[in-house]
Each structure stands twice: as structure tokens, then as C-alpha cells.
Amino acid sequence: METYSDILCHLKHEFVKLYKGNSHTTEILPNLPDELLQIESKQLLLLHEFLDANPIYSNHISTKISDKGYTIFEGDLNNYWIDSIKHDTSYAPFYPTWMLSAWVLALTAQNLGFEQIIDIGSGDGRIAYCGKVLGLDSISIEIDENLVNMQEDLSLKTGVKFNPVCSDATNYDFKKIPSKKSIFTIGGVPEIGEVLAESVIQNALKSSHIENSSFVLTGSHSHREFSRDKTHFGWGTSIKKLELTVVSTISLPTYWTMDQDFETPYVFTKKE
What we know:
The chain is α/β, with parallel strands linked by helices. The chain has 8 helices and 10 strands.
């Protein structure tokens, strides 16, 4: 997992140095299969199709980084960001991870032996999408209907059925999902996502048919000095309260760390 992190973090920093545009939202995908990131040709094509069909992005540019070909996707997130915070029970605005980061999260889940990935606060559904591309069962739960409509359209256009669900995950009936070894990815850094994460985890743990429940929490570096909890990237108190065990942590590029020297830590936990 550290190898995946090192590859993407280096790639982000090289991209930031290279990119001279002023697009609100940017990310990149390799043009050829990548053995180090375990992306095969057909899988890479599906990652490109997701971003090509995604209405967030309106332009793409070919470039080279370290003598390898990449496509830069440029877009604007503003309309979807505004929509994502209009709900009374929305705990965090929509900010996408990099598509490659979503891939690594799904790949890590697969390498840890999980059969099913449930993406909570899924935005445009990219983590669940990557899970399905890898052959995992996936479910994408998002409260904003416009984002869910986008997901359904992306599923139709790409032919990848990653099961978008429009619901508040804090009270969703998880008994509806298949009984498999499952991992939940939960959006929202601790400063704004603590209520969501704790509520979702408590709700999910009520469903005893979900085997070996594990949860990925989106950590934070930027506010650690000012947070009441500086352990486990802001999640220490919640982890202790919910009696979770930290399995591993992986740092990956996200939209909100593109202009920073640090990345976003994702904390993999399991129920004790």
C-alpha cells in the first residue's frame, strides 16, 4: 500500500509543477496500462470513460510526465458543490478524490480480502465505480439527488453497474445489502464529518449479517494543530468510542490537497 501511495504522491507533485492552467478542478490518468498501480488495459479504458462522461469535466489535454503519457482532465465543481450542501442532513460538501486515488482505495480493499465496498457520501460514485471495475460488489450511497442522477447516467454510459442509492446513510437499512465481507468508505474529514461517520458506523453495526465490518475514515493533516483530537489524523476519539482497531493508513491525493505539500490520509479500521 505504501508503494501505491508513493507513486501517486510523486505523480501529484510532478503534475502540480507541470500544470500551467487555471481550471477549478483537475486530475490526470495514464494513457497506457500501469503495472505498478495494477491497472490493466480494459480497466484503464473504463477509468477514462468515467471521466470522459462525467459532466464535471469539460476539457482534456495530453501531456507527458517523466516521459509517460497522461491525459489532464479539466473542469468545474462549483455547481455540484453548492447542490451537495443544500440538505439539512448533509454533513460534508462534495469534493472528489482523484480518480487514481479512488482506484487505489478500491484496490487496497480488494488486496485486504474484501468482497464488497459500500461508499458513503459517494459524490459522483467514483470509489464504488472503481470497486466494480475491479470485480468487487459495490454500493454507492449519496444523499444529494443531483449527484445520484449523475451516477446513474455515468453507470448507463459506461456500462458499469455500481448501484447508486439516493439515501441518508445514517438511517439507511443496511440489512438490504448482501451478506459479504464488506468495507465502508466514508467521506468527510473529522472536522466536518465526525457526526456522519459515527452515525453511519453505529447504523451499519446494527446489521450483524454484514461480515467483518471495516471502515475507511478520511483523515486530516491541515487542522491537526487546532483540533481537540490529534491522534489517528483526527479520528482517535471516534475510533476509541466505537471500539475500532486501526489496520493501516494510506495517504493519497485529493481535490482539496492539490495546492498543498501534504496528502489526505485514509485510515482503514475494523471492529474489534
